[in-house]
Amino acid sequence: MKNFRLNFAGRRCRRPSRESGIGLIEMIIVVTMAGMALLIAVQLVRIISGTTSKRDDIGLQDAYEALVGYAGAHAMLPASDSGWLPRSLTGNARGNRLRYHVASAVTQVPSVVFSPSSNLAINSPGLNFCLSLAQIGPGAQIQVGSNGTGVPALAVLEYSSSGATADSASGVALPGSADAAMQSVQGRVARAISSPELFSALDCGERLSRAAAAARYVDISTDLLALAKLNTQHWKNAIQNGYAGQANAAVSVSRLNSWEALIIADMVILQIMHVGRMPWTIPAEFAYMGVVAGYTSTLIQIRAQRDVVNSTIDDWINRDLPALEIEAARAAATENSYAAALDDSRNELLRFASLGLSQ
User: Fold this and answer.
1) What is the pLDDT of residue 286?
2) Are strands 155-160 and 151-153 parallel, antiparallel or unpaired?
3) pTM above 0.85, yes or no
4) Does domain 210-355 correspond to CATH entry 1.10.287?
5) Higher-confidence residue: 273 or 202?
């Protein structure tokens, strides 16, 4: 009995030590879970902060794309609404309005005109805007950046989750700078738009290039058509000169015929006079024969010259005129071809001008 009590008492004495060990394990578990919860909370804060920043960046990108779309439709950027992006355009991802500073030079109709052809004037607002983007100087742009880090830009967008934004472009931290990194921690993000960036976003390079190529085609076609017209006129003049030459040849034949008739008439009179002087003497006969020989020689020359003129007329009618008409027809066909090419090139240039920034 005594031994039993001792054993029972020993068991009861060891029980508090067992309960103390279980409490320590539970404490370790609690501390571990608290640490894990803290890590998860920190990670969630980072995720939420990153998501918010990403949403803000998406909002700026949406606004940028809206500005590009506006420029494509109106050939200019919208004016700011008292320093804010117009409500008609998208804000940031949470619907808040964005600060918007823009150069006045790109919010109005450009003063420059893109008309690359010297033979066909065009005035396309879209192409004019593209040309103005290529030619705009730093003095006509806004200066984006604080603390002396300003660079020229066409426009700048800014959003702040804390509510504080810059009243001017010079107060906006230059994107990518140390100031911008510091402000991003405060929830301020910005997006600048440069002239080369907008020029590229609107495909201005391709639009101006294809219009310039069409203008060059117009100028070349105009020159070729002018040369073709000169060539056609050359062959027409050749035909007209040929007809004029044939008219002169016909006059020559008529004169030769008259001359021949006159010589024959003189010979007849001479023969009558010769018969009336019988009896003939030898000296008189020699004189008579000399005159007859002279008349005969003259007749031979007249007829030979007339044959030459008639041969020339025949060659003109049967050979030269058909050849000239063929060349004139070819020249006219070439002229028509160049005229059609000029019409095509003019229509192409006018089409590019009418498209502007739409396609």
Assistant:
1) 82
2) unpaired
3) no
4) yes
5) 202
